[in-house]
Fold:
Amino acid sequence: MRKTPGIRYLATNTPFFFASDGTPTGGFFWDGRARTFAEQAVEPFINPFEMANADKASVVAKLAAAPYAADFVRLFGADIFGDVDGAYLRLSLAVQQYEREDVEFNSYSSKYDAFLRGTAALSDQELRGLALYNSPTKGNCSGCHPSGRGADGSPPLFTDFTYDNLGLPRNPELQRNADPAYFDLGLCQRADLPGRGDLCGAFKVPSLRNVALRKAYFHNGRFKSLKDALTFYVQRDTNPQKFYPLDADGTPLKFNDLPPAYRNNVNVTEVPYNRRPGDAPALGDAEIDDVIAFLRTLNDGFTP
Structure:
């Protein structure tokens, strides 16, 4: 149904809320429905599209038979596996603590981190890419994926934990999309947000740390390379025929992964989405390559 969301650099994420200006913010998963790491961690166990265990008792039975079951008993008590709800809760908390505490999830070990610490230099192409990334008239990426240190000096997370509606092309590889009447509407599908048609099509802004290592992009996995993803960002409105099917008279069917009633929700005002067919894209091909060079500096594991 969706591409698996990243789980790194979420230690400072919060439960879902609306900011004072009404901006949806926080939460875990693409639609923010989980409030904590713990809630996010255990949903896949009984999700029919993921691990597909029948129920919590099935998960706990497997946990009781695992090689580390004795460790679980030592930590949570001899009777823990007799209490299904209690064991399932503690399983969620254990995974949560792993994701909070293990350095693998928040290593800040990229070349860009070294650059911010003054222990590495970016190449000319990487510096050009950073400038284009930050420019409000070019890439404008930092509008949702801030690249500067926080007010407290903390390293940038490359997400502001908000949501955006990008009007992605429909992905025919997703099994659910074989049904032409099916649409993944993101935020407005949540049971706790009834009547919020204005949120249909909005999905969470992910961190761009390690983005160059991903094999698919966006919530529906429509694009398979960083070059294709960035090209879509800057040419979605200048060259829509590249990304969307055409109707009988050759007109691109833009935003075709949303029902027509919700296509006005798509972001068409912020750079680089404020273009029209025939306009110059916000970034040229060489500039896209420069931005990609910068994005590669966000890969963890940099060795000076």
Summary: The chain has a mean pLDDT of 96.
